[in-house]
Design goal:
The complex is a heterodimer. Chain A has twelve helices and eleven strands. Chain A is α+β, with helices and mostly antiparallel strands. Chain A folds into two domains: 93 residues; 248 residues, 2-Layer Sandwich (BirA Bifunctional Protein, domain 2). In chain A, a hairpin with a 2-residue loop joins β6 and β7. In chain A, α1 runs antiparallel to α2 and α3 runs antiparallel to α4. The two termini of chain A are 75 Å apart. The longest helix of chain B is centred in the C-terminal third of the chain and has 19 residues. Chain B has 21 helices and 43 strands. In chain B, 27% of the residues lie in helices and 26% in strands. Chain B starts with a strand and ends with a strand. In chain B, the strands form twelve sheets. Chain B has a seven-stranded mixed sheet, with helices on both faces. By secondary structure, chain B is an alpha+beta fold. Classes of the chains: A alpha+beta, B alpha+beta. At the A-B interface, α5, β1, β2, α6 and β5 of A face α2, α7, α10, α12 and α13 of B. The complex binds zinc ion. The site of zinc ion has 8 residues of chain A, from loops. Chain B: Keywords: Aminoacyl-tRNA synthetase, ATP-binding, Cytoplasm, Ligase, Magnesium, Metal-binding, Nucleotide-binding, Protein biosynthesis, RNA-binding, tRNA-binding. Chain B: Tetramer of two alpha and two beta subunits. Chain B: One of its GO terms (cellular component) is phenylalanine-tRNA ligase complex.
Chain lengths: 378, 831
């Protein structure tokens, strides 16, 4: 606090000569330079720059000087104090930086410590593959249709040209519910969704239906009483087998990668005519039936039979065909105006090829190590 | 269908350079799917030679068996020309017989290596082979004795035994019944290579006359054609020729006796089932009719069958003697004494065949062909071929009588536009190609643009234009179908429900839950294990008529049994810290409504469609969670946290929050949960009504034991369909105040029975509009509070949308909150 010094006492006047002021300043600068840490610097600040420090006292006495001496002394003391304050600030910054470096060094941790505080969650690979397949078709403008697992016999069979006396009924080993006269089954394929879709929508129809199906197969590495299919159905004017082939080629490439195409073989399904089995170019050997021999041979260029396709170069993927006109009739679609195609692929099977799953049971055992390996998107 | 390649080649003149693999692949491309190629003897490596037994000395052994010490002339096959000494356990041969010998160095099926070895005091240098040892059949009773003149000692036995035959096994689709014969397979091979073909059914047969065995058909719909021929003087002890026995075996049938083998052989050759009767055991004329309900018949397989009025039977004066077209009867079966044989070749109605086979659970080679439909024009040829073989190999004489009743029905013509194959397949198929393809499969084609097509009699599967399209397409080649992606109209994307279901799965996976898929099959034991009351609605489950396991015949009504079994399985595999979820439908049966079997010649009416829907059980989507072990693991960061009831509740709350639905919880008693640790999850629906979605909490300790899961396992199960229905489609954006927040903490002591949720609601209500949030941050019980009491500490935040709150305003709001809590719950403020 400054102001006129009212309690003027000439006895206490300190000499404010040039030498004395310089000495005070130099002593202060030396002390600042010598301060080893921020605490010491704080003490130095009080001793050499505080109100009761020599320079502080000198400053206070300027007012007591005769007016003619005031200006010169004021200038001299002011410069000295400025130099000291500047040095203090610089040293303070230096010491703070040192202190921070020291603190950061002390706080170093082992960043390799484990991070498994909460076990990871995962979706099921079949769910993810179903979603992925749906997305492929939705991107083409198709929609996703659904139907119940416990289904009317008429929709699972009769409407699909599988009448009660059709020998092909016994090909699909069906779970029947009690009482038999209720005519209710566990759907043996996703195809009843075809009939449901035609009965509830007007053409043009472009739908896929991923879902669960059931057959009375004993449970082993390649069979399961419950598995998953994806059904596709298109009903529109001018639809041909070429559109079926185009859709499946696109589907195959979207799931398995560029260049993986399909092949048709004549087959038989009551609900399609013509009917075909669909084979897929083996995406492991890319149709050659051979893969390079394991490294044991030191890259000699030798090859061995591809295990995925057993050397065939092709993998059986599913069934398809042109919708049988009698199915269109049962579902109220005019067969003279519209044609359609349908296909059905195993989702579990698709995953088995794509990811090298060796045992179908892996999907249904619920071992968390299995699902976790696939994460949350496939 | 197993087709020996040499047999195929009897009827089709294939190019010489066609390999079996190539042939099989070409036929696969035509629709006869390759299952496997068997190479008979492919697992035998020589030396396998013909030998002549020179001497055999029976030597009784201490173990009661008698072995034969033999010397066998194997020519120069053993390198020395000296007789080979061999020990043999069989006795069905004599010196001078020709046998099959495998010499040291040979390997038999199963990797059985033959070497010189000391046995029964001799050095046995090889083995005299039985049919079974060579993989040629089941006959192990004795060694193979070759017919005299089959070869010379030292000859390679592979050729003599037909061991170099290749057999292609095809999977025949139900529509291609004609390919269940060599006649049909060879026809397809001819089609594949455009090669000359000789139809084995094309033969000159004697004219029917009235001297044949009398046959009457009462049901011409069920049996349109019946041909009967008889032979006399048959030698029942005549052996089946080796070539015939071998082909039967290669085709997968067991040789039985010449009479039976000939009928089977001709069935394989021509595709037409044939039945042979012991003519001396027939009594009076043969009559074909429907059975009378309850009539009895013992079939050839020894089964006593009670017949239905729908079954077609062949009868004589004694009653039924055969289930027509499916299986013959025991009383007229051919035996070792049969010298007169009646050969029946009849056409049967396929539907009737299928029903009878199904009704009597009878599958036979004959039934398989008859129910798919056979060529009705060839019974005479087939019967004549059988007679020919019986005469040639059984010493029989053909009787002059030839019975034929009925005529093959004409094959209906199919009208087809010549451009239909192109329009359906997308391939540029010219009408001329359509005609030539149809003619190639035996159709008679008339017309140019509109074709009138009469299919050949062996193709009874061809009934409509699309059947013909498939024929044309497979001959032009499925590989010629172009690939064109169809352009769909603009789609609407996934439905809201489909999107939300994905959101639920992702939310839970993000929360550390792992998704599992389990089978929906349970037994009532699972409901017992869950501790469900006798009257619990979850015990009412849909029953399967043919479950895979008798222990699990029901369609589950709850996902918990499957989920708990999965927990136990993971524990068994060493994973102890688990958070699982499953999303699947459950089946809630409705009572007593049958699903109609609707007509298929038209669309169902709206009423019929509704009836169908109503008959199906309710199948809501459920979500279930299970947690065991640690929810958070212990580690360098500190101790872990065991999963508790609250994690199960939190999982459900998280899902609800992800769907924008506010759920309420309240204490409940519900199996299988711990009675003091069960939360009922409820929602308020659009009409303002409170409805239960499901339950979450800790499992009852007894249930944990029953399922073998750890104590304190926590589970939740809710009706996800109901929750999805309530999901907020469009979230309204919040309007946020940027004025400072005022915070106040209050600790309230209440009776232990007051739910925290209720108290929090009261505080919120009492604090009024200025209250932004109420959060419980501590629960304390102890001596300071007193028995039966608890202290709940809440953090309250206040904020106004338009101004900074004064201390007085905040205090007033807080006091109002505390006052309401005191009034409603007797809450005392703790200081
Ligand atoms: Zn491959």
């Amino acid at each position: 606090m400054s102001g006129p010094n009212s309690s003027y006492d000439p006895v206490q006047v300190t000499p404010l000569g040039e030498e004395q002021v310089f000495a005070m300043r130099d002593a202060a600068l030396a002390a600042i330079a010598a301060a080893a840490d921020l605490d010491e610097l704080k003490r130095v600040r009080t001793e050499h720059a505080g109100d009761r420090s020599p320079l502080g006292l000198a400053n206070r006495e300027i007012g007591a000087l005769p007016p003619q001496a005031r200006k010169e002394a004021g200038l001299r003391v002011g410069q000295a104090r400025g130099a000291v304050n500047q040095a203090l600030a610089a040293r303070s910054e230096e010491l703070e930086a040192e202190a921070e470096d020291r603190m950061l060094a002390e706080e170093t941790v082992d960043v390799t410590l484990p991070w498994d505080r909460m076990p990871r969650g995962a979706r099921h690979p079949i769910t993810m593959m179903s979603d992925r397949i749906a997305d492929i078709f939705v991107a083409m403008g198709w929609e996703v249709a659904e139907g119940p697992l416990v289904e009317a016999e008429w929709l699972n069979f009769d409407a699909l040209n599988l009448g009660a006396d059709h020998p092909a009924r016994t090909m699909q080993d069906t779970f029947w519910t009690e009482p038999a006269e209720n005519h209710v089954v566990l759907r043996t394929h996703t195809s009843p969704v075809q009939a449901r879709t035609m009965l509830t929508r007007e053409p043009p129809i472009y739908v896929v239906c991923p879902g669960r199906v059931f057959r009375t197969d004993e449970y082993d590495a390649t069979h399961s009483p419950m598995f998953h299919q994806v059904e596709g159905l298109v009903v529109d004017e001018g639809i041909t087998m070429a559109h079926l082939k185009g859709s499946l080629d696109h589907f195959a490439q979207a799931v398995f990668g560029e260049g993986i195409t399909t092949r048709f073989r004549p087959s038989y399904f009551p609900f399609t005519e013509p009917s075909a089995e669909v084979d897929l170019v083996c995406f492991v050997c890319r149709g050659t039936g051979e893969v390079p021999a394991p490294d044991a041979d030191g890259g000699t260029g030798q090859s061995v039979t591809c295990r995925t396709c057993r050397g065939e170069g092709w993998i059986e993927w599913g069934g398809c065909g042109v919708v049988n006109p009698s199915v269109l009739v049962a579902c109220g679609v005019d067969p003279d105006r519209y044609t359609g195609f349908a296909f059905g692929m195993g989702i579990d099977r698709t995953l088995m090829f794509r990811h090298g799953v060796e045992d179908l049971r892996s999907f249904f055992e619920g071992d968390v190590r299995f699902s976790r390996a696939f994460g949350t998107e496939i | 269908m197993k087709a020996p390649v040499s047999w195929i080649k009897e009827y089709v003149d294939l190019p010489a350079d066609v390999t079996t693999d190539e042939l099989a692949h070409r036929l696969t491309a035509l629709g006869l799917k390759l299952e496997a190629i068997e190479r008979a003897g492919g697992d035998i490596t020589g030396p396998l030679v013909v030998g002549r037994v020179l001497t055999m000395e029976p030597e009784p052994q201490k173990n009661g068996k008698t072995i034969n010490w033999c010397t066998v002339d194997v020519g120069s096959a053993n390198g020395t020309g000296e007789p080979q000494g061999i020990v043999c356990g069989a006795h069905n041969f004599a010196p001078g017989d020709l046998v099959v010998v495998v010499l040291p160095g040979g390997v038999l099926p199963g990797g059985f290596e033959i070497s010189e070895r000391k046995t029964y005091g001799h050095v046995s240098a090889g083995m005299i082979c039985s049919a079974r040892e060579l993989g040629l059949g089941d006959d192990h009773a004795g060694i193979i004795v070759l017919p005299a003149g089959a070869g010379q000692p030292g000859d390679d036995a592979f050729d003599v035994l037909g061991l170099r035959e290749e057999v292609i096994e095809f999977e025949i689709n139900p529509d291609r019944a004609y390919a269940l014969s060599l006649r049909g397979v060879a026809r397809e091979a001819a089609l594949a290579y455009d090669a000359p073909y000789v139809d084995p059914a094309a033969r000159v047969t004697p004219e029917p006359n009235d001297q044949g065995y009398p046959v009457i058909i009462d049901d011409p719909t069920g049996c349109p054609v019946f041909v009967a021929r008889t032979v006399s003087g048959f030698d029942p002890s005549a052996p089946t020729p080796d070539w015939m026995a071998r082909r039967l075996q290669q085709a997968g049938m067991r040789p039985i006796s010449l009479g039976v083998d000939v009928t089977n052989y001709v069935m394989l050759e021509l595709g037409h089932p044939i039945h042979g009767y012991d003519a001396d055991r027939l009594a009076g004329p043969i009559r074909v009719r429907r059975a009378t309900e309850g009539e009895r018949l013992t079939t050839l397989d020894g089964a006593r069958r009670v017949l239905s009025a729908e079954d077609l039977v062949v009868t004589d004066d004694s009653g039924p003697i055969g289930l027509g077209g499916v299986m013959g009867g025991e009383t007229t079966e051919m035996s070792e004494a049969t010298t007169r044989i009646l050969v029946e070749v009849a056409s049967w109605d396929p539907v009737s065949m299928f029903r009878t086979g199904k009704r009597h659970k009878l599958t036979s080679e004959a039934g398989k062909r008859n129910e798919r439909g056979v060529d009705p024009t060839i019974p005479e040829a087939a019967a004549d071929r059988v007679v020919e073989l019986l005469v040639a190999h059984g010493g029989a004489t053909a009787d002059p009588g030839v019975t034929k009743v009925g005529e093959a029905p004409a094959t209906p013509a199919i009208q087809i536009a010549a451009d239909l194959p192109a329009r359906v397949t997308g391939m540029p198929i010219e009408p001329a190609t359509v005609i030539s393809c149809l003619e190639a499969i035996g159709c008679n084609v008339d017309g140019e643009e509109h074709l009138v097509v009469v299919p050949p009699p062996w193709r009874r599967d061809l009934t409509d234009p699309f059947d013909l399209v498939e024929e044309v397409a497979r001959i032009v080649g499925y590989d010629q179908v172009p690939s064109v992606v169809p352009v769909a109209p603009a789609g609407r994307g996934l439905t809201q429900g489909q999107l939300l279901r994905r959101r639920v799965g992702r939310t839970l996976a993000g929360d550390g839950f792992v998704e599992v898929l389990t089978f929906p099959f349970v037994g009532s034991e699972a409901f017992d294990a869950l501790g469900l009351d006798a009257g619990d609605p979850r015990r009412t489950a849909l029953r399967l008529a043919n479950p895979l396991s008798a222990e699990a015949p029901l369609m589950t009504t709850t996902l918990l049994p499957g989920l708990l079994e999965t927990v136990a399985r993971n524990l068994g595999r060493g994973t102890t810290d688990l958070a699982l979820f499953e999303i699947a439908t459950v089946t809630l049966p409705n009572v007593g409504v049958a699903a109609p079997i609707l007509p298929v010649d038209r669309r169902p009416t709206d009423g019929e469609w509704d009836d169908l829907q109503k008959a199906l059980p309710d199948q809501p989507l459920h979500l279930a969670l299970a947690l065991a072990g640690d929810r958070e693991l212990s580690g360098w960061w500190g101790p872990g946290r065991a999963a508790t009831w609250s994690d199960a509740v939190a999982g459900v709350r998280d899902v609800a929050a992800a769907l924008g639905v506010t759920v309420d919880v309240r204490a409940a008693h519900q199996a299988p949960w711990h009675p003091g640790r069960c939360a009922e999850i409820t929602v308020t629906d659009g009409m303002g009504a409170q409805r239960a979605l499901g339950y979450a909490g800790e499992l009852h300790p007894r249930v944990c034991k029953a399922f073998g899961v750890p104590a304190r396992t926590a589970v939740a199960e809710i009706d996800l369909s109901a929750l999805l229905d309530l999901a907020v489609e469009v979230v309204p954006a919040p309007s946020l105040s940027s004025y400072p927040v005022a915070k106040e903490d209050v600790a309230l002591v209440v009776d232990e029975s007051v739910p925290a949720e209720t108290l929090a609601r009261t505080l919120r209500e009492g604090a009024g509009e200025l209250c932004e949030s109420v959060r419980l941050f501590d629960v304390y019980t102890g001596e300071q509070i007193g028995a039966g009491r608890k202290s709940l500490a809440f953090a309250l935040r206040f904020r106004a949308p338009d101004r900074t709150l004064t201390e007085a305003e905040t205090a007033a709001a807080r006091n109002a909150a505390v006052a309401l809590a005191a009034e409603r719950h007797g809450a005392e403020q703790r200081t």
